[in-house]
Amino acid sequence: MKAMRITQPANVNPWARAAFETAHHAYVRGDLAEARAALLRALDSQPDFVDAHYWLARLTDDPQAKRRHLTNALVHLPNHLDALRDLMVLDGRLTPEQAAQTHHHAEAETRQAAEPVRMTTTVLICPVCGGDLTVDPNDGHVECRFCGYRAEKAPQPATDGSDLLAAALLERKATNVRWKIGRRLLHCNRCGAERTIPATALSTRCPFCNSNHVVQQDALGSFQQPDGLLPFRVSQEQAEARIRKRLRRLDERLAGLIDTNAMRRLELEGVYLPFWLFDALADVTQTITPKAGRYGKGPASLRLPQTSTFRDGCFNLPVPAMSKPHATLLRGLNDFDMGQMVAYQPKLLARHPAALYDIDFDQASLEARSEATRRMREKHGQTNRDDVEVRVSTLVVQMSFRLVLMPVWLGVITEADGDLRQALVSGQTGKVVLGKAQKPKRR
After folding, report:
1. pLDDT confidence of 300, banded at 50, 70, 90?
2. Are residues 69 and 126 in the same domain?
3. Residue 39 burial (CB count, 10 A)
4. Which residues contact 268 (CB under 8 A, 6 or more apart)?
5. In terms of residue numbers, what domain contains 190?
6. Exposure of 409 by Cβ count < 10 A (0-12 exposed, 13-18 middle, 19+ buried)?
7. Is the per-residue pLDDT at 256 higher than 70?
8. Is residue 140 part of a domain?
9. 116 in a domain, yes or no?
10. Does residue 167 lie in a domain region?
11. Among 45, 71, 101, which residue terminates a domain?
């Protein structure tokens, strides 16, 4: 029998505490009806009493009441893992046995697939004539380049598609094995040919019949599908013009006095690159302290530090989900407008290919947590007064995430002296990020 106890005693008023102790004694006696009644009295006295909500959920058989109290517990204490486990069991994401398995601290075993892993794909063909599909760059409609078929425009996401980080981590802990994939095996349903593709390719073309394939899943369930996609709004010609304009800036011209960095050739390819998008909820503690020498002349005017604690959040924190291109370049493309996001559909990749992530959400969440903390300190550490100092501490209490495909023009600049330089252009806004020139690798 799990012990009924108060996990945050400092936050409970005396009347709610007394009612909870009555519920505990009734629970030990096996009088569940009296225990539930006492817990309800505790909530009448203190509606945000997390332990009362949690134990009412455990002691009721009514799924709706159970869900309501578990949800209330998580609203008031987002990192309440026991409530989250029970809610995941109620939702069918975990079995009771899997939930019990998540209490251990051991990580799942990581295994490397020895051979290419079979997968299923969606072939992007016209439903009318069987021709090749593309995407109209002007209005985003999927259309056939042969018969004129036009599909309905991609909808806005019905929901944001995000998942709680804690829930995803619990779900992962309930599994025994995490697979690392080197290559996947593509079987073309149109011509029957088979070939292997890199694990980082979400879409590819068959080299024999040129049919366009989008990966749906593999035999090991090693990845998740994107939740959303930002369409291309910048054409290849516009991206090239943006790069040329960026190279005419003063800093580039000054660098050209030392190194021959004039562009001889530019190669561009439009690709959808994966980013993890995080929302973070944080408890912020702000302490305002008078500066030394600003206390006044007498005890009556002595001012003590003032501390306040409140909750705030950061939304749409993008973290690159690929190790190449280098994260420093990808982080430079930080001006995406998430309001333009549409629900992911494989057919939206008819014009431009897409990459699959090789940085998982748990690793990316560490960077997102650090960025959320930095933003909270920056936001709440500012003051217009010169006689006080402001200190801010932040505790991230909840994070949610989703996988989004961002439009990027990947460019390689060949300079006059033969050096190669990487260039990235946001396919939505046209922002340009340039890498450093590198000597070409000798074969």
Report:
1. very low
2. no
3. 31
4. 236, 239, 240, 409, 410, 411, 425
5. 111-229
6. buried
7. no
8. yes
9. yes
10. yes
11. 101
220 lies in the same domain as 139: yes
Q: Tokens 């159970």 belong to which residue?
A: 66
Q: Is 273 exposed, middle or buried (0-12, 13-18, 19+ CB in 10 A)?
A: buried
Phi-psi region of 132 (alpha: psi -120 to 50; beta: other; left: phi over 0): beta
Which of these, 176, 173, 168, lies nearest to 109 by C-alpha position? 176
Q: Are residues 62 and 31 in the same domain?
A: yes
What total number of domains does the chain contain?
Answer: 2
CATH of the domain at 63: 1.25.40.10
Cβ within 8 Å of residue 294, ≥6 positions away: 303, 387, 388
| Cα gap 146→123, rounded to integer Å | 17
Residue 137 in tokens: 């760059």
Based on the fold, state whether residues 141 and 78 are members of the same structural domain: no
Q: What is the pLDDT of residue 301?
A: 45
Are 79 and 134 members of one domain?
A: no
Q: Half-sphere exposure of 177 toward its Cβ, with a 13 Å CA cutoff?
A: 9
In order of 140, 286, 393, the CA distances from 136 in angstroms are 5, 50, 48
| DSSP-derived 3-state class of residue 326 | coil
| Token pair listed for 315 | 């939304």
| Contact indicator for 411, 329 with CB cutoff of 8 Å | no
Q: What digits encode the pLDDT tens for the residues 64-119? A: 999 999 999 999 999 899 999 999 999 999 999 999 988 877 777 889 999 999 99
Please compute the mean of the pLDDT values over residues 255-275 and round it to a whole number.
82
Tell whether 165 and 220 lie within a shared domain.
yes
What's the rounded mean pLDDT across residues 19-39? 96
Q: Please report whether residue 94 resides in a domain.
A: yes
Q: Residue 86: how many CB atoms within 10 A of its CB?
A: 22
Quote the CA–CA distance of 227 and 223 in Å, as a whole number. Answer: 12
Q: What is the chain's length?
A: 443
Which residues are within 8 A (CB) of 95 and not within 5 positions of it... i.e. 6 or more apart? Answer: 89
Residue 201 φ/ψ region, left for φ over 0, alpha for ψ in the -120 to 50 degree band, beta for the rest: beta
User: Element (H or E) spanning 218, and its range?
Assistant: strand 212-218
Domain boundary among the residues 229, 253, 271 is at: 229
C-beta of residue 301 within 8 angstroms of C-beta of residue 393: no
Do 63 and 142 have their domain in common?
Answer: no
Residues 54 and 125 in one domain: no
| pTM for the structure as a whole | 0.89
Residues 401, 318: Cα–Cα separation, whole Å: 10
48: tokens are 């945000």
Among 202, 238, 227, smallest CA distance to 217 is for 202
Cα R_g (the chain), whole angstroms: 28
* Residue 264 confidence (pLDDT): 87
Which residue in the block uniquely carries the two structure tokens 């801010």? 392
Residue that the structure tokens 């829930």 belong to = 167
